[in-house]
Amino acid sequence: MDKGIGFCVTIQHGRCMAQMFKERGITAAALVSGVDEDKRAAMLSEFRTGRLKFLNLAVQVPERLQTFASEAGLADQGPV
Q1: pLDDT by residue (tens digit) across 31-44?
Q2: DSSP 3-state assignment of 29?
């Protein structure tokens, strides 16, 4: 694998996916809401240079928006 970006549905999902990649020997990180600016810049730099092979992106969507998306048929109803 050269490099990849994953789009995760929650912050926890992003962190879980990064851990799964790491357990399989692939350098990965979760770039999620709440990561401070210095750490965010370091992650992006490592991804650009290829030191970090996989970057998971996630934001925490408010529950009421998740509910709206589900009711509107815009969200997957199955397990992640």
Answers
A1: 998 889 999 999 99
A2: strand
Domains of the chain by start residue, with CATH: 4-71 (3.40.50.300)
Task: Extract the tokens encoding 28.
Answer: 């990965």
User: CA-to-CA distance for 59 and 42, rounded, in angstroms?
Assistant: 19
Structure tokens at 66: 């998740």
For 59, phi then psi, to 5°, come to -130, 155
Measure the CA–CA gap between 34 and 50, rounded to whole angstroms.
24
Sheet (strand 4-7) strand order: 4-7, 54-58, 28-32
